[in-house]
Specification:
globular
């Protein structure tokens, strides 16, 4: 419960950093630059907060695997969006097994570090 509560409380402040960058750079709402700058900045802020916790906790790897995890997240989001865009372009409907496959990939990607040997995540 604590992890879910903490992460929901921190989601908005991390996302706000991305919104600030978006407005400072004057990216048009809904544009590629707007969407992905907010994702990358939000996850970078989250990574810094997690890194501080790793340093204070004196983890053996100093939070290195956490940094890798947070760098991989936006790449995974961009790949998924690209695949969805290609599917839309070719008229593939997101019905039946495709949404389930997408969710399965998200869960595997999100929770895969538990089985990959990445310590500290």
């Amino acid at each position: 419960m604590w992890g879910s509560c903490w992460h929901q409380l921190m989601r908005r402040p991390c996302a706000e950093a991305g919104k600030i960058v978006k407005s400072l750079c004057r990216f048009r709402t809904g544009s590629f630059a707007s969407r992905y700058s907010q994702i990358w900045i939000g996850l970078a802020v989250s990574a810094m907060i997690h890194h501080a916790g790793a340093v204070v906790s004196m983890l053996e790897d100093n939070g290195r695997w956490q940094a890798v995890y947070f760098c991989i997240q936006p790449i995974g989001i961009m790949i998924e969006d690209g695949v969805m865009g290609i599917a839309r372009r070719y008229g593939i409907q997101m019905t039946g097994r495709l949404p389930k496959l997408s969710m399965d990939l998200k869960l595997t990607f999100k929770h895969g570090q538990k089985f990959s040997g990445m310590p500290g995540c």
